[in-house]
Amino acid sequence: MATMTTRPFSRFNLWLLVWFTCAYLVWTVLTLRAGLFAAIDASSDTARLQPDSPAAQIAAAFTLVSHPLVLCVGLMALGIWAWRGKLRHLATASIASGLLSWGAAVLVANSVQRPRPPSPLSTALTYSGYAYPDAHMAVVTAAAAVVITTITTTRRPPIAMLVARLSALAFIVASGLAQWSMNEARISDLVGGMLLGGTVVTAVLFVARVRMLPVMTIRRQASTNRPHGGLCAVIYNPHRMADEMVFRRQIANELAGEHWEAPLWLPTTPDDAGQGMVATALSRGADLVIGAGGDGTIRVIAQSLAGSGVPFGIVPSGTGNLLAKNLGIPLDREDAIRVAVKGRPRAIDLVKLVVDGRSEAAMRFGVMAGIGFDARLMSRTNESLKRLVGSAAYVVSAVPELLVSPHRVEITVDGVRQVRRKAVLTVMGNVASIGGGLELMPDADPTDGRMEMVIGSPTGLFAWARTALQVITRGRAGNSLEQYTGQQMSVRVDEPMPYELDGDTVGEGCLFEAEVDPGALVVMAPLSSASHS
Predict the structure, then answer these.
(1) What 3-state class would DSSP assign to 19?
(2) Does the UniProt entry include the keyword Nucleotide-binding (predicted)?
(3) H helices then E strands: how many in the chain?
(4) How far is it, in rounded angstroms, from Cα 314 to Cα 329?
(5) If DSSP codes are grouped into helix, strand and coil, which group holds residue 533?
(6) With 90 as the cut, is the pLDDT of residue 200 above it?
(7) Residues 214 and 148 sit within 8 Å (Cβ to Cβ)
């Protein structure tokens, strides 16, 4: 069973949403129905700038730079950056805010059909469409809010937050002045656009659960009446960090808020994927270890922490993130860090694997071990393609493997020989999901002291399609896969076969002996969770 977690709504965001919504509705009524601002708007009937004047050229250039299309493209680029940095909520909000603000303003304006004031600069690209609410100001306001939000989420220093807010406000004012001076919009049109943009962006941020404004103080001193958190060691793969400094600031901020000591930073190296870092953390008396990286890094840290009792906070930073997904740990980095620091300790099983009798080189995994087919699949999958399209890269790499001839295997479960047969797919697993909503071993539970094994021998496209259908329907569409459950399992093959652990190809072997290590690892899990099958 896996768990799901939900990021809490921000009360401040809700307050802003209500304020902007009410302000926009009241302003619209006062502008269009009551005509309260008619005298002020009448000033826009007089030309302010001559087309060839330097001031007009500067204003026109500014309105082009801040054009809704330009800002939406910029917000999309910001969203892509945030997505690469595993800030998924921020990425979604960034892309949606500009497009929805622009779309909402155009939709309302076409409904109201208020003409723009006469302007000697009516040939300007930005002098188009109806006036109320001004779409230009709507997108400018949304973009400014997203910039403030980005500074918040990435935990910039207080001075940077203050500068960002002042700069965003200045950008909104300058955009309004440029349009007003060019007679492109009335004051009421500009304010209406700003309020509509604020309504849309706060709604998007509220739904996406992105905190808009933070507390200004990043690091707070521990008070005398609250216990100190202790020492946290942060082990991370720097090659998986789109912005290492942002990651560090987010970790440091979350720990400081819970009164922990300054974290111990332990980046992995090409020669050490995490074993030495865990040894250092344990020797320093770490009370919590946070690991950030792909499935391989997480597996190495988990293996090295096994039996220590030190809680392990997982910040998924790869393409698969299978252990995190199966434990309900959020894939958004900010959420994952919060769970790693504030979650509840939960003991899970690991599986100990000995290959070809080399007990001194025993390994542990938390997700699965695959022999043959999926090991070759993992090794042939291009890393650049994985970063580009995620798990879909495995589908591309699987095509050449679909016609591979089966090999002979001998299976033993809990000391009892089960079968000797030919197989293409042999997987021992500790969890249900293999990603993408697919459950290869739907009965697997990392807390029940048992493990699962799946064996299949599909040959040809039709057989593979039938096997895929069984996985998609969780066993309700055929029995092309044989399933076994036990505490100890062994797989013997007639010739050396490659094998993978948690998505990383490790080596080759002929005899694979696996045994469950119950409750070997303590993982920080979400506080509020709901089980689902």
Answers:
(1) helix
(2) yes
(3) 17, 18
(4) 8
(5) coil
(6) yes
(7) no
User: Are residues 235 and 274 in contact, defined by beta-carbon separation less than 8 angstroms?
Assistant: yes
- Looking up tokens 């950030």 gives 292
Domain boundaries, the chain: 2-208, 232-349, 355-517
Distance (Å, whole) CA 367 – CA 379? 17
Note the pLDDT tens digit of each residue in 291-338: 999 899 999 999 999 999 999 999 999 888 889 999 999 999 999 999
Domain 355-517: top CATH class = mainly beta
Please name which of 390, 256, 254, 392 lies closest in space to residue 315, comparing C-alpha atoms. Answer: 254
Token readout for 460 is 């040809």
Indicate whether 462 pLDDT > 50.
Answer: yes
| C-alpha to C-alpha distances, 516 to 20, 296, 326, nearest whole angstrom | 56, 19, 17
Q: Which residues contact 188 (CB under 8 A, 6 or more apart)?
A: 27, 31, 37, 40, 41, 132
- What's the predicted TM-score (pTM) here? 0.81
- In tens, the pLDDT along 55-104 reads 988 998 999 999 999 999 999 999 999 998 899 999 999 999 999 999 99
What is the CATH topology of the domain spanning 232-349? Rossmann fold (3.40.50)
Q: Is 443 exposed, middle or buried (0-12, 13-18, 19+ CB in 10 A)?
A: middle
Query: How is residue 421 written in tokens?
Result: 């047969």
Length of the chain: 533
Tokens representing 394 are 């495995």
Strand 438-439 to 264-267 pairing: unpaired
Judge whether residue 452 has pLDDT over 70.
yes
Q: Which tens digits make up the pLDDT trace of 355-379?
A: 999 999 999 999 999 888 777 776 6
* 3-class state of residue 40 by DSSP: helix
Q: How far is the C-alpha of 251 from the C-alpha of 290, rounded, in Å?
A: 9
DSSP 338: H
Return the pLDDT at 373: 76
Angle at 260 between CA 296 and CA 253, to 5 degrees: 75
For the chain, the 3-state helix, strand and coil shares in percent, each to the nearest 5, are: 45, 25, 30
Max Cα separation, the chain?
A: 94
Is the link from the previous residue into 267 a cis peptide, with omega within 30 of 0? no
Q: Are strands 288-293 and 312-316 parallel, antiparallel or unpaired?
A: parallel
Structural element, H or E, at residue 96: helix 88-112
